[in-house]
């Protein structure tokens, strides 16, 4: 911190970032552990998980970020994101209709509800992770945090990479990645991929594997750069899913990977994104715009609810989501003493669905629904270097949000159940923090912020009063230190947090019916700590580790359908007690390399009562890879879950079923670049 700019960047980083490790100079450590570069085009620095770090932990899906980022976890039902729960420091989304606690953007394009988040990841240049409310820093509201993913941009020379992969369960993967200049001021980047494998679960009644997987997609970016200070970007992304049944097995099954269902489920899913981006640099700063349209279409998702051959209880869901968004950002010059960012954001989401549930041979419920959400927001953030050692970070966001529902359910009984309603609200989300440079290597910081998840409606309720849920408010506080010693090539971060969450949005079934609604638990407290470190002790060796502890409990939540039952003091479902990771890689001078990584997850409950039947004990997943790489090709042998650990990534108490985690798999990958 020898100049006024470096303390400013340090302050911004400490106030906004809660991910891996600090790096005042991106060249101090090898790329595999450069986790917190100072980002010049942001009003605040941000932690970065590099492409090499993603490779170190064999990260191929969004849920694979669990453990790498302390406090972050994805509860996956292996249904391509549908019904997944994304956790950040004790804040979560609900399964189907509630807004996400953790926002996600890909190439600055905001995603909608958490179930529309992609299951498989594209080839990424980096991932940026923020913890705590991020409303003043993004157009997309991040009431508990934000994840930004970026794909590689074109370079001055054309580059093409082909890769092929084969492994256990007849897994095959093919990918093409190419980027570079076109004629004139145009350039491009293109990714194409295809993945498929046989199922992990064996249906012993039908004598076949049921959860086969197949995905095909691509991403195209076209860039126009007539000058250094102006850019236009046209982006198109598509993905097509043709899967077998959801990966589910009965909790009573002696083998996690066997079931006896008499019905083969199926999942078809298509997603498309179109977006137009612009950037113009001026003497006073920078102007950026992002306009996007996205459509997500699940048609259908079918599941055998009893997972046996004795009954006919089935679920068939067709659901789609259309999202329009527009954002305009203004920001200061990168080298300004007082750095600022401001913007306007608009987002409209429309969900249409038809859910059919056969609960008995001649009893079928059909739920036809339309849910609309509209959001307009203004946001801004400033970072002021008050002294050579002290920096102040402040931000504010103002939201207008409205939602409406039109829903009808039909069943064999006379009369239809109709739910219609609309609501709107305005709310404010402030942020304030301080950072003090104790020494040139140590920063201490404190930050307090407010995050808001808007109110809305659930489609799976016959009662209009129960269909509506209220806004959730999170008062988040953190304190921590960051240590960066360039002479030792060592970075360590330690943070403690305390979040008070009012009207916590929470899923619960309605007794005596098939209704499944979102309620508001009065108070939840989430507290814990996060530790991460990166070290390059000798040439060729990189080490990265993290540990996060989260204690999220209901302070005030009584069962609304049974006043004699209180959940006070119980753990909030879907939140592991702790997560952690350790990755080690060594690159030999001759071109060979070896890397290994491990992730741990603490005990997790899947219902508010914390019943032992619906909980997952702690487990450890160990992966490894060896390979040989040259300038033009790489060959690698890899293994995942080498200990063949058996565990559930999701448990559904309503149907006494769970989604077992990936079993032990091995494979080989060949990559060529030209």
The name CATH uses for the topology is Maltoporin, Chain A
Write down the overall geometry.
globular
Looking at how many chains there are and whether they match, the oligomeric state comes to single chain
Radius of gyration: 24 Å
Distance between the termini: 41 Å
Overall pLDDT score = 89
Task: Kindly estimate the percentage of residues that lie in beta strands according to DSSP.
Answer: over 45%
Question: Structural class from helices and strands?
Answer: mainly beta
Biggest sheet descriptor: 22 strands, antiparallel, barrel
Q: Estimate nothing, just give the exact number of structural domains.
A: 1
Assigned CATH architecture: Beta Barrel
Number of strands: 39
Number of helices: 3
Q: Can you identify the CATH class?
A: Mainly Beta
Helical content, roughly? under 10%
Low-confidence stretches: 1-45
CATH H-level homologous superfamily name: TonB-dependent receptor, beta-barrel domain
What's the gist of this structure?
This protein has 3 helices and 39 strands. The protein is mainly beta and 674 residues long. The protein has one domain: TonB-dependent receptor, beta-barrel domain (Maltoporin, Chain A, Beta Barrel).
Characterize the structure shown.
The chain has a single domain (5-673), classed as Maltoporin, Chain A (Beta Barrel). The relative contact order is 0.14. The protein starts with a helix and ends with a strand. The chain has 674 residues and is mostly beta strands.
List keywords for this structure.
22-stranded antiparallel barrel, 674 residues, Maltoporin, Chain A, mainly beta, disordered N terminus
């Amino acid at each position: 911190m020898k100049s006024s700019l470096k303390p400013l960047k340090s302050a911004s980083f400490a106030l906004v970032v809660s991910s891996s490790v600090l790096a005042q100079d991106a060249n101090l450590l090898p790329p595999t552990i450069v986790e917190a570069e100072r980002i010049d085009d942001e009003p605040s620095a941000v932690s970065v998980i590099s492409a090499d770090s993603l490779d170190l932990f064999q990260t191929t899906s969004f849920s694979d970020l669990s453990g790498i980022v302390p406090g972050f976890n994805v509860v996956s039902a292996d249904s391509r994101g549908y019904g997944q729960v994304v956790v950040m420091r004790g804040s979560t989304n609900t399964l189907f209709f509630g807004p996400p606690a953790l926002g996600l953007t890909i190439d600055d394009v905001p995603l909608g509800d958490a179930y529309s988040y992609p299951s498989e990841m594209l080839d990424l240049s980096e991932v940026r992770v923020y913890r705590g409310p991020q409303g003043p820093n993004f157009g997309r509201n991040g009431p508990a945090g934000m994840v930004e993913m970026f794909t590689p941009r074109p370079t001055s020379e054309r580059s093409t990479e082909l890769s092929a992969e084969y492994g256990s369960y007849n897994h095959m993967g093919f990918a093409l990645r190419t980027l570079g200049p076109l004629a004139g001021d145009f350039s491009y980047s293109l990714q194409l991929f295809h993945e498929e494998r046989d199922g992990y679960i064996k249906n012993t009644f039908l004598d076949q594997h049921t959860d086969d997987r197949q995905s095909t997609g691509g991403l195209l970016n076209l860039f126009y750069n007539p000058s250094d200070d102006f850019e236009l970007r046209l982006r198109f992304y598509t993905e097509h899913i043709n899967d077998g049944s959801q990966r589910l097995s009965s909790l009573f099954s002696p083998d996690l990977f066997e079931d006896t269902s008499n019905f083969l489920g199926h999942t078809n899913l298509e997603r498309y994104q179109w977006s137009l981006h612009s950037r113009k640099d001026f003497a006073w700063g920078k102007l950026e715009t992002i306009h996007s349209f996205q459509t997500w279409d699940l048609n259908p998702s079918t599941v055998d609810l009893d997972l046996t051959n004795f009954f006919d209880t089935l679920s068939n869901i067709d659901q789609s989501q259309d999202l329009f968004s527009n954002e305009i950002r203004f920001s200061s010059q990168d080298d300004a003493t007082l750095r600022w960012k401001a913007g306007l954001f608009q987002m409209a989401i429309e969900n249409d669905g038809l859910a059919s549930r056969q609960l008995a041979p001649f009893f079928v419920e059909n739920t036809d629904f339309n849910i609309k959400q509209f959001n307009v927001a203004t946001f801004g953030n400033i970072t002021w270097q008050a002294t050579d050692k002290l920096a102040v970070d402040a931000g504010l966001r103002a939201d207008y949000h409205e939602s409406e529902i039109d829903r009808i359910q039909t069943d064999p009984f006379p009369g239809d159940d109709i739910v219609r309603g609309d609501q709107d609200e305005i709310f404010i989300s402030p942020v304030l923090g301080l950072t003090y440079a104790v020494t040139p290597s140590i920063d201490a910081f404190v930050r307090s912020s407010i995050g808001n998840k808007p109110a809305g409606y659930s489609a799976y309720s016959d009662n209009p009063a129960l269909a509506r849920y209220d806004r959730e408010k999170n008062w988040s506080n953190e304190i921590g230190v960051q240590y960066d010693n360039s002479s030792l090539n060592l970075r360590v971060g330690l943070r403690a947090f305390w979040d008070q969450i009012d009207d916590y949005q929470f899923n619960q079934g309605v007794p005596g019916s098939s209704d499944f609604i979102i309620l508001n638990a009065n108070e939840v407290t989430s507290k814990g700590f996060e530790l991460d470190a990166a070290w390059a002790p000798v040439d060729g060796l990189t080490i990265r580790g993290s540990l996060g502890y989260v204690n999220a409990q209901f302070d005030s939540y009584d069962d609304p359908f049974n006043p004699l039952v209180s959940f006070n003091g119980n753990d909030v479902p879907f939140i592991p007690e702790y997560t952690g990771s350790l990755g080690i890689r060594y690159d030999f001078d001759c071109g060979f390399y070896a890397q290994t990584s491990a992730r741990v997850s603490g005990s997790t409950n899947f219902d508010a009562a914390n019943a032992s039947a619906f909980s997952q004990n702690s487990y450890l997943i160990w992966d490894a890879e060896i390979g040989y790489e040259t300038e033009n090709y790489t060959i690698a042998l890899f293994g995942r879950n080498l200990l063949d650990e058996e565990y559930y990534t999701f448990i559904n108490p309503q149907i006494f079923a769970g989604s077992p985690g990936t079993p032990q798999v091995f494979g080989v990958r060949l990559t060529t670049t030209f």
